[in-house]
Amino acid sequence: MLYFAYGSNLDHEQMRSRCPGHQVVGLAALHDHRLVFPLHSHTWEGGVASVQAAHGQTVWGMVYELTDSDVAALDRYEGFRGPGDQHNVYDRELMYVELTRPDDGSIPRRIRAACYVARPANGGPPSRRYLDAVLKGARHYKLPDDYVAALEKAPTRD
Question: Annotated catalytic residue: which of 13, 78, 98, 152?
Fold first, then answer.
């Protein structure tokens, strides 16, 4: 399964731990969306990321190819029980993203990838620790400089 990561799963060490079989496909943009923090996480002690429709804005992230066991593990981490389940923390939705820098040297193209979208619940600013995990991945994968700069300016709980 192709998966678009935009939050803490940009952190390559976290992804290696959660989904050891994943492969990097490349840098991608989710157009007409913005990054939001609509869900409180006790683990991260603050808001955690999701995407929300927003005309003219872009969320940058990475596309990974996941094995079946990686998908099952990520579903558990993201609180996804199944399509339409009322107890989902995140819903897994297919979205079109623009693969702008494929790691295999192929041409940029529009692809469908799974994206976890939070069901809002007591959101708020992220903790410094959470935002640092997002930034670590954003810098590692060389997301666009202006996007990283905007992330750096995001308010935090601490």
Answer: 78
Answer whether residue 115 is part of any domain.
yes
47 belongs to an annotated ligand binding site: no
Q: What is the pLDDT of residues 47-102, one digit of tens each?
A: 999 999 999 999 999 999 999 999 999 999 999 999 999 999 999 999 999 999 87
Is residue 82 a known part of a binding site? no
Whether residue 116 is annotated as binding a ligand: the answer is no
Domain residues for the domain of 81 are 2-143
- Strands 90-102 and 109-118, by their bridges, are antiparallel
78 is catalytic: yes
Separation CA 1–CA 7 (nearest Å): 18
List pLDDT tens digits, range 117-127.
999 888 899 99
Say if 8 falls within a structural domain.
yes
The answer as to whether 152 is a domain residue is no
62-97 burial: b if 16+ Cβ within 10 Å, else e = bbbebeeebbebbbebbbbeeeeeeebbbbbeebeb
Is 141 assigned a ligand-binding role in the annotation?
A: no
